[in-house]
Specification:
Blueprint lengths: L5 E7 L2 E7 L7 H11 L8 E7 L5 H16 L4 E4 L3 H10 L6 E3 L2 H12 L1
Parallel strand pairs: 2-3, 3-4, 4-5
Antiparallel strand pairs: 1-2
């Protein structure tokens, strides 16, 4: 049996928040991509927060999904915000330069505060 992700979605402050748990690699990246496509933006505005606090590993396949989500958010007038990024995924984001384009926050609450502040 191949590994899978645990994915949940909620709305907070008119923002779609997707919680990801598990490694995002070539076997699970399509699952994350499909989930984001199915749940974003939903009933919320154009901002998207992906909670990565339980993502210990991210490979290039997962990075492609996040870059695609970033582009989708930008097309809809928002941004992709990553929250609680662990050291291994953070290293990949920094190494590839993606960290310069994607907003990263300490946790979901910090991401939501930044979004709220940008609206005023």
């Amino acid at each position: 049996m191949s590994p899978s992700l645990t994915l949940t979605c909620r709305s907070a402050a008119q923002v779609t928040v997707i919680h990801v748990s598990g490694a995002v690699d070539s076997t699970t990246a399509p699952e994350l991509d499909d989930y984001i496509t199915a749940h974003y933006p939903g009933e919320c505005g154009p901002e998207l927060v992906v909670d990565m606090g339980e993502v210990p590993f991210l490979d290039s396949s997962g990075l492609v999904v996040l870059i695609r989500a970033h582009g989708l958010a930008r097309e809809r007038g928002g941004d992709l915000h990553l929250a609680a990024v662990q050291s291994s995924p953070a290293f990949l984001l920094a190494l590839t330069g993606a960290r310069e384009a994607i907003r990263v926050h300490d946790d979901v609450e910090a991401a939501l505060e930044a979004i709220t502040a940008s609206r005023t």
